[in-house]
């Protein structure tokens, strides 16, 4: 599974995205979780998981989503 989290420096999502990026990497060290540039949806935590965009996330809801995807 590949996860990209929008955390572009100097963007509106940087603070929330950076927090979610750190939390996700700590919770799922076995996954490839990367910082991405803008994913086109602003002011929310936005993640791309296996090519599909998810928005209006929190660190906790992102972790729940990743867990659901891992369980298949």
UniProtKB/TrEMBL annotation:
InterPro entries registered for this protein in UniProt: Thioredoxin-like_sf (IPR036249)
Domain of life: Bacteria
SUPFAM superfamilies the UniProt entry points to: Thioredoxin-like
Name used for this protein in its record: (2Fe-2S) ferredoxin domain-containing protein
Organism in which the protein naturally occurs: Kosmotoga arenicorallina
